[in-house]
Design goal:
Layout: H1 2-13, H2 18-39, H3 46-66, H4 69-77, H5 83-101, E1 105-107, H6 122-146, H7 152-168, H8 175-208, H9 213-240, H10 249-274, H11 282-286, H12 290-308, H13 310-325, E2 331-333, H14 336-364, H15 370-390, H16 396-426, H17 434-445, H18 449-462, H19 469-478, H20 486-518
Helix pairs in contact: 2-3, 2-14, 3-6, 3-13, 3-14, 4-5, 4-12, 4-14, 4-15, 5-12, 5-14, 6-7, 6-13, 6-20, 7-20, 8-9, 8-15, 8-16, 9-10, 9-12, 9-15, 12-15, 13-14, 15-16, 16-18
Length: about 525
């Protein structure tokens, strides 16, 4: 099993297979072209619809390549799932979410950012939607190539805004809505990061810093996983299946509570059974979060497929309706072929090009173990629930990445704080005992945050931690180690900020180009 998993991981990431992955994606787009051509052969402007369908498939591929990494990246980075297994699970649940819960009607103007009623010509509307779709896809393609996870919703919002202004002037845009979207650039990552850091700190204090970790885990882990079950149960009801079953928040919360009760007793029984053989260390307890992380990856992928498939098929459905009816539409029915383009495009993009971003989210921003990844996944669900009730516009991508940064910065803070405690103790001892201190320093330098806490407690009891001034300065340098890669922070933040303007400018240029070619 391990050998086959390693082979699949290599197949998905090896540079030597990249040309084959590109070829498969082009074959997928060719199938869309031919399939839609056969379906629309008697329809006016069938070539335009075929082109729009290919662009919609291209957009879906890029959504799968870029956005899905946030759902499975933490599970892969923590070791709960291999890359190959994560890609297969996410592909199935993304496509399933899109086909099962993607709905049969979609809003053609994402978020109500423009008023299409000001357009009297349906051809301008078709060009607008085509330009928006292509611009959003091109920006996502570029962001994926740069290794920057960005919001696919913001990409298509920018595309619609830019093409809309090009088609109808500045007055076509709803700038109040755009202001809320801009606010989400700060709200989403801050909320996600704060919640992830808070849960990680609570887990450390309640479980990982205890002398007897296993008894603490028996008490607290069932409650933690039950909270996750409530969050995901509620999240799925208000976001994942909202187009199948419409429930208010109270009903969704009650369904989540029922799931939490069932999960609590199941996990408590499991932890009790495993306690006798569990290693009495944070590493041993971390294994308890493996299955919750796997379920979280699957459920997040399902909800993402149900919601974000609209970013690819919304404009395509609008183009299909406009060409069929000869008018401008604000909501459009979704034919089965349109939904299949979106659903299978998500799966194809994830499997062919998603691994690069999965690795970025899972291991390149900060080191994730199962406990930290659990906190990221939990914060993602809770933040979406909280934001939806407060009416705040948030991005699931920004939330997840904010959670990863949140746990990383918390680790930096804690390690720096523990170093300060050690310095205070050492100032009370004679430098002549440095040789006796050396093994302790080596252990402390290489320790994890949890191990540092225990070493500090041991040092306080034994009073054997002398350190010279030069060694104190040297020790301080050790704790300047970056547990969050600042280069990734800068790159991702910059990509987030320019997503809407970049896709808007590209969409405006594409709109004028299409209008010039097709008039």
């Amino acid at each position: 099993m391990a050998r086959s998993s390693g082979f699949l991981d290599s197949l998905l990431t090896s540079p030597t297979t990249e040309r084959y992955r590109v070829g498969i994606s082009l074959l997928f787009l060719l199938i869309i072209w031919l399939g839609v051509g056969a379906l629309s052969k008697d329809m006016p402007n069938s070539m335009l619809l075929m082109a729009a369908a290919v662009i919609g498939g291209y957009m879906a591929i890029n959504i799968g390549a870029n956005d899905v990494a946030n759902n499975v990246g933490p599970a892969v980075g923590s070791g709960a799932l291999s890359l190959g297994a994560a890609v297969l699970i996410a592909a199935v649940f993304e496509a399933g979410g899109a086909l099962i819960a993607g709905g049969d009607v979609v809003s053609t103007i994402k978020g109500g950012i423009i008023d299409p009623s000001t357009l009297s010509d349906e051809r301008a509307f078709v060009w607008l939607m085509t330009a928006a779709l292509l611009a959003g896809a091109l920006w996502l393609n570029l962001a994926t190539w740069m290794g920057a996870p960005v919001s696919t919703t913001h990409s298509i919002v920018g595309g619609v805004l830019g093409a809309g202004i090009a088609a109808g002037g500045w007055g076509i845009a709803d700038w109040a809505v755009m202001g809320k979207i801009a606010a989400s650039w700060v709200i989403s990552p801050v909320l996600g990061g704060a919640l992830a850091a808070l849960f990680l700190y609570l887990i450390k204090k309640a479980v990982l810093y205890r002398k007897d970790v296993v008894p603490a885990a028996r008490t607290f882990v069932p409650w933690l996983v039950a909270i996750m079950a409530w969050a995901f149960g509620t999240y799925l009801m208000i976001k994942g299946v909202k187009k199948i079953v419409k429930v208010d928040f109270v009903d969704a919360a009650l369904i989540g509570l029922l799931a939490a009760v069932i999960v609590f007793f199941a996990v408590r029984t499991m932890v009790k059974r495993m306690a006798s053989t569990m290693e009495n260390s944070p590493r041993g307890v971390s294994g308890l979060f493996t299955w919750p992380l796997i379920f979280a990856a699957a459920l997040l992928s399902f909800a993402h497929g149900a919601n974000d498939v609209a970013n690819a098929i919304g404009p395509l459905a609008a183009i299909n309706d406009a060409l069929s009816s000869g008018g401008v539409v604000t909501s459009a029915s979704i034919p089965l072929w349109v939904m299949m383009v979106g659903a299978f495009g998500l799966a194809v993009g994830l499997m062919l090009f998603g691994p690069r971003l999965i690795k970025t989210v899972g291991s390149e921003i900060t080191e994730l173990d199962k406990t930290r990844a659990f906190c990221v996944a939990l914060s993602a669900a809770l933040t979406v629930i909280l934001a939806s009730q407060l009416g705040l516009p948030v991005s699931s991508t920004h939330i997840a990445i904010g959670g990863v940064f949140g746990v990383g910065f918390l680790r930096e803070y804690l390690k720096s704080n523990y170093a300060s405690q050690l310095h205070t103790i050492m100032e009370h001892h004679d430098a002549a005992e440095q040789e006796r201190l050396r093994p302790f320093l080596n252990d402390f330098r290489n320790a994890s945050v949890e191990e540092m806490e225990r070493l500090l407690q041991q040092a306080k009891k034994k009073k054997q931690v002398p350190l010279s001034k030069s060694e104190r300065k040297r020790l301080k340098k050790i704790y300047k180690e970056e547990m969050v890669k600042r280069s990734h922070l800068t790159k991702i933040a910059a990509a987030w900020i320019i997503t809407v303007p970049a896709s808007a400018i590209m969409a405006a240029i594409l709109f004028f180009t299409l209008r010039g070619l097709l008039i």
